[in-house]
Every structure is written in C-alpha cells, then in structure tokens.
DNA sequence: GTACTTGCAAACTGTTTGCACATCA
DNA sequence: TGATGTGCAAACAGTTTGCAAGTAC
C-alpha cells in the first residue's frame, strides 16, 4: 500500500520523461518508509547505508526533481534545513514536539474557516497555508515530570 | 511612540548588563522604522547607509542578543533566511504575498480555538503557534489581470 | 581600568553547480 | 548513440566564531 505510492511516484517520473534510477527509487523508498519529515542530510545518511556510493548532490537533485513533479513537498519545520515528505492528497498541518522533534500531522476544519475569514478580511487570494504548532508531546511532558 | 518602544528596548539591554552601543541602537531603529520583517542582510545594508563601518557579524550578534532578551523575534517566512520583527505583546500571524513579498499581520480567535482543539485531541502542550498564509495580495491580484 | 563589543577574516553548514564519466532507452 | 543522470570537487549563501583592537561604564 505504501508500496503503491512509490510505484505511482515512479510512474510520474516516467511520464515526465525522467529516468527511474536506482538512486531516485532509493530516495523515494526512504521518504516513504520513514514517517516522513526527514531532512536532506538524514536521507543521505540512510541512503548511504543501502548504497555507499550515492552522493549528497544526487540526493539534493533527486529531492528537487521529486518536488518539481509534485511528488514530495518541502517543509520548513525549523529554521535550519528543509524537510521533505511525500505529497499527500489530504491537506494537513504539523504539530512538532520541541523536545524530541517528533512530528504529528493533523487537520481541522477550523483551518479552512480561518483561511476564509482572513482572506475575506484582507482581500488576499490564499494559495498555501502553513500551520505549525510547537510544544511538548504527551510522552515528553510525562518524562519531563512537572 | 514607536520611539518609546526603542527606548524601552534599550532599557532592557541595560537591565541585563548589556551595553547600549551605537550599533545596537541603530539595528533597533532600523527594525522599528521598517514595518518589520527584514532579514539580516537587508538590516545590514540599511545600517551601512547610516554607519558604513558596521560589520555584518555585528548585525548578526546584535540580532541574536535582541532575540535572547526577548526584544525581537525571529521569523521563518521563507525557506532561505531568517526575518526579524520587534516582539509585540499582541500575538499575530502572517499573510505573505507570493508576488511582492509584502507581509500583513493578522490575528483571529479562530487560531486560539484551533490550538485548544488540537492540543486536546493530540495531548500536546502548545508553546508556539505559527500560522502563515501565502497568496496574492489585493494589489498584485489586480495588477495580475486575470 | 576592565569587561564587554566591534571589525575583520576565516570557518561552518546547508545547498547548488560545472564537468567528465557512466548509464539507460 | 544520444540524452539524462551521477559523483566529485569546487562554489555559494547565510550564519557563526576567534582574535586583536576599540569602547562604554
């Protein structure tokens, strides 16, 4: 099933006249099987475990291509680097634990209401919506004591 | 009035045993009189217009200090660099024009409702909330035609 | 006077690019 | 075979740091 998404992604590559190389398939596989939200460095590290000869620039080029074709999205969860996830049909936003960095996805109709309200008030035509909530996840809060 | 905020900021500096240098005052002045949301490079450029001898590292160090003391906040409006604004008592979020890069601040009680809802559902204790809506501002939409 | 700040240059991190070689269709 | 993709090294942008000289208090 998650496998099906990878196959679909590879078809999109092919449909755009791009080659399906071992490296690209590997990058997709890693993003797929990872709860998403990895950064390029981490994808590179994991890729090297499977194929020690892959280069960091190939990872970046692969991610950029996948992004152009709409297969993955680039996130800006923190200030320092980009993170990537498989693009999903369902819109969702991110809850990020400030201690363990875990990312949980959520969606809420309140977001849509917010967008309608703000766009009506300010006259913007909204194209993209980013909602990131940062805080302690239940596990870290428990561990935290207090 | 906006002047008053700068004075207050300088007092905070002083209260923390930090010196009030011409460079720090200049950085504050620039952020103050700028509709906010400048990045370090732009602050540096404007600072040099007033004091050609200021260095980029001084700007970065100043911004980091101001941030540590809670006087300015660092934003991540786009992927590439940090932006800074004077920290305000009132919470607000950002509407960003994808064409002219203009930033409009907004707030809405729907955001608070969203936070309560999500934190109740997922068990997170929310510490920070980022809502960024990206789209065309009214002016750019008009100019755009279509 | 002395601790804090600055300017400069050099280091670092994340990301992109030029180029020769490899490779898939 | 010819267009595409890869690996490597070098280039970049944004940001940070070490150090000697300068400055606020």
Structure summarized in a few sentences:
Chain A has 146 residues and is of the alpha+beta class.
Please give a structural write-up.
The first copy, chain A, is 48% helix and 21% strand. Chain A has 146 residues and is an alpha+beta fold. In chain A, the strands form two sheets. Chain A has a three-stranded antiparallel β-sheet with strand order 1-3-2. In chain A, strands 5-4-6 form a three-stranded mixed β-sheet. In chain A, strand 2 and strand 3 (83-86) form a beta hairpin. In chain A, helix 1 runs antiparallel to helix 2. The first copy, chain A, starts with a helix and ends with a helix. At the A-B interface, helix 5 and strand 6 of A face helix 5 and strand 6 of B. Chain A binds a DNA duplex (25 and 25 nucleotides) through residues 17-21, 23-24, 39-41, 53-58, 60-61, 64, 80-82.
Give the topology, please.
The structure is a homodimer of 146-residue chains.
Chain A: H1 2-15, H2 22-32, E1 38-39, H3 40-50, H4 56-68, E2 72-75, E3 83-86, E4 93-97, E5 103-106, H5 109-122, E6 125-136, H6 138-144
Parallel strand pairs in A: 4-6
Antiparallel strand pairs in A: 1-3, 2-3, 4-5
The structure holds a DNA duplex (25 and 25 nucleotides).
